[in-house]
Amino acid sequence: MNDNKGFTLSELLIVIAIIAALVAIMLPVFSGRIERAHEAADFANVRAACSVVNSNFLSGEGDLTINVPITQEKPKWTIDNDTIETVFGARIKVPAKTKEEGFYIVSIDPNTGVITVT
Prior knowledge:
The structure is a single chain. The chain is of the alpha+beta class. It has one helix spanning 9-59, and strands at residues 65-69, 83-85, 91-93, 103-108, 115-117. The strands form 2 sheets. Strands 1-4-5 form a 3-stranded antiparallel sheet, covered by helices on one side. The protein has a two-stranded antiparallel ribbon with strand order 2-3. The chain is rod-shaped, with a radius of gyration of 24 Å.
C-alpha cells in the first residue's frame, strides 16, 4: 500500500493551469473597472474644482483658475452624462481628455461668472 501524502506533480500543474485561466479571464474585467474609476475620479475632481472656483468668485478671494490633473487613459467618457450641474443650475460640458494631455483647466470669467472647463 502506498502511504505517500501530498499531491502529484500533474495535480499541481492542473491547479496552476486553472488558476492561470481564471486570472486571464478576470484581468480585462478589472482593467476596465480601473479605467472607469479613473474616469469617475476625474469627473469628481473637475466638479470639485468648479465648486472651488465658484466659491472663490463669490467671495472675491483665491484663484479663479484651477488646473485639475487627468488620470484616465482613454479619451472618452463612458458615463451617461458629460455635464456638471452647478449649485445655481448651470450645466457645464466637460471634454473627455487623456492623461497625456495633462490637465483640465477650470476657470470662471470674472465679469460674467461663467465657468468653463477646457
